[in-house]
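lol ok so funny story. i was supposed to be doing the assay writeup but got distracted and ended up predicting the structure for this chain instead. priorities right. anyway since i did it might as well share w the group, maybe its usefull for someone
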Amino acid sequence: IGMINYYKGDNDKAKEFLLIAKNKGVKIHPQLEKDVFKTENKKEEKDYKLEKKEDYAKYETDVINMYNWLLTTPIGAEPEKRKAINAFVIQWISGSPNVTIELSADIVTYMDCGECLTIFMGGWTKYALETKDFEGKVKGNLAGTEGVIEFYTLNKKALGKNKEIEKLIQLKNDNKLENF
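and the output, tada:
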């Protein structure tokens, strides 16, 4: 289905289905992968500088795109790029004058999963940047947690079973996640 959408010119749909295929272990032709994922490849070529308060606003869209890439790209794919993006996203979040994230051990119970922690912080950040709700702790936690659930579900095989995230999935399935 990904290839059909690629040849129809719908790269968004192609990307969506090719990611599903990659998560199931399908090898994607390198040229096809380059064509479909070319927008993310351009992002890593930028020369990012986070020296002044104003620098952070310039990269808000990039941070959201990087988070989306981390969320949807299989954990084993492009490990060097993943490492670089993780480092930049954490650096950006840590120095951002607008986005403040609170990590609560009662909510972020999966501290043993470093990738999941980055996804949590990225989900909260994406929510804050898109809604301009920089004070919404409940909504920020919810967005971060839902990102972790999605990421874990897509990468469960690579990450291994995590009982704490499984509990969060059950809460979401029971429509009790926001109350939690």
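The CA atoms of residues 98 and 134 lie 7 Å apart. The longest helix spans residues 137-159.
back to the writeup now i swear
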